[in-house]
Write a structure and sequence with these properties.
The protein has 380 residues and is an alpha/beta fold. The chain contains 17 helices and 13 strands. The protein has helices at residues 6-12, 27-32, 45-53, 57-65, 81-91, 104-109, 129-132, 138-144, 148-151, 156-177, 184-196, 204-211, 217-227, 257-264, 274-292, 337-344, 371-377; strands at residues 16-20, 38-41, 69-73, 96-101, 119-123, 231-234, 251-254, 297-303, 309-316, 319-326, 350-355, 361-363, 366-370. Strands 8-9-10-11-13-12 form a 6-stranded mixed β-sheet, with helices on both faces. Strands 2-3-4-1-5 form a 5-stranded parallel β-sheet. Strand 9 (309-316) and strand 10 form a beta hairpin. The radius of gyration is 22 Å and the shape is globular. 41% of the residues are buried.
Length: 380
């Protein structure tokens, strides 16, 4: 089993912890490696009904069994349970809760008490390069992504089937069963158009026309994708808006290349797709690596109306860093002239090209590095 970096912080945490992350990233597996005295799985319908029908069930269980470490899985299914957990923590300082959830939206919608001052919040994504080390296979990551069960499966046909089931489950469970949208068909059309728009600048009006949905539904549907941790909008860099006339539309990326490929029905990183897949992978690795190391990261876009462009401008450890993504290590300095210009003007502190090959070289003030080496240079 691959060691998850976040586990060390969770184990040594002096307070209870809440771990949020998409389905199947390994939250439950992670906590199962920690010895707990009581486990409550709210994904199980019997458990769910028992705890939702009796507000005192948790108190009674703890009074009866005297546990000190309690694991509550899928806490977003009963947000009100957090009020009871706060009471129990306040009453008994020795109690330590491990809570996991896959939807910040359901917690907010249920007016959840996120226990400020009593609990540490963590986020967990799919596997990252520094967790896999020499087992990080970039071609495999581009094809089936990095969900643990999918990536670590030795049979590629099984990995693909798992991903197909995952995307079907998302529409059924996360969207329909939780009644996050009134019209599942309109959301499905929206999702189809979003899949085709990954890495592009998204015009909400045009997307609504293509999906045949209301323009006002588009931001709400994007919020659903973000709150269920399935994907994220990336907005223009605020720190560079005074210096450049930037395109204001956001870009969008899914949380995993394999899930994106499953939604497209294509798992082949062919020449016509490799550029978008490489961008998607770099975005995922930047975000999820920052989560693993508990680093604050802000990821933004940079494209001017005159055509100057850098794939990502990130703010990490109080530095502004430009990152250009290439699917090859063969390119000219003219292809990264905007990145070089930003660095020479000292508008960014560092600039990198991250690519999917093996060559390392310096082009002017910019280092061109394989993705895994580039992440290490960032401390991720």
């Amino acid at each position: 089993m691959t060691h998850r970096i976040i586990k060390d912080e969770i184990v040594k945490s002096a307070k209870s912890v809440l771990i949020l992350g998409p389905r199947q990233v390994g939250k439950s597996t992670l906590i199962s490696e920690i010895k707990v005295d009581l486990k409550i799985n709210l994904a199980d319908e019997f458990e769910f009904l028992k705890f939702s029908s009796d507000p005192n069930e948790l108190k009674n269980l703890i009074s009866l069994n005297k546990p000190q470490k309690i694991f509550v899985d899928e806490i977003q299914r009963i947000p009100s349970l957090l009020n009871t957990i706060q009471y129990l923590i306040d009453e008994n300082k020795k109690l330590k809760f491990y809570l996991t959830g896959s939807s910040a939206r359901k917690l907010r919608r249920g007016n959840a008490n996120l226990l400020p001052g009593r609990i540490f919040n963590f986020q967990l994504g799919p596997l990252i390069a520094s967790e896999l080390n020499s087992d990080f296979n970039i071609k495999k990551a581009l094809s089936v992504g990095l969900l643990p069960e999918v990536y670590l499966n030795k049979v590629s046909s099984q990995s693909i089937q798992l991903l197909k089931s995952y995307t079907a489950l998302y529409l059924k469970e996360e969207i329909k069963a939780e009644a996050l949208v009134r019209n599942l068909e309109s959301f499905a059309r929206f999702l189809t158009e979003v899949v085709q728009s990954v890495s592009q600048f998204v015009d909400f009006t045009k997307l609504a026309q293509k999906a045949k949905i209301s323009r006002h539904a588009v931001p709400r549907y994007f919020e659903i994708l973000e709150d269920t941790m399935i994907g994220y909008r990336v907005h223009p860099c605020p720190a560079l808006m005074d210096d450049y006339d930037l395109i204001k539309h956001p870009r969008f990326y899914f949380f995993d290349t394999g899930v994106y490929n499953a939604l497209q029905g294509n798992f082949e990183p062919s020449l016509d797709r490799i550029g978008v897949l490489a961008e998607q992978l770099v975005f995922n690795q930047l975000m999820h690596s920052a989560w693993a190391y508990s680093e604050d990261i802000q990821i933004n876009t940079f494209r001017t109306r005159s055509g100057q462009e850098v794939d990502f401008i990130i703010k990490l450890k109080n530095k502004l860093i430009g990152i250009e993504v290439k699917s090859s290590d063969h390119f000219s300095s003219s292809e990264i002239e905007t990145l070089i210009s930003l660095k020479n003007k000292k508008l960014i502190q560092q600039g990198f090209v991250f690519h999917t090959k093996t060559k390392e070289e310096k082009i002017g003030p910019i280092w061109s590095l394989p993705l895994q080496k580039g992440l290490k240079e960032l401390g991720l």
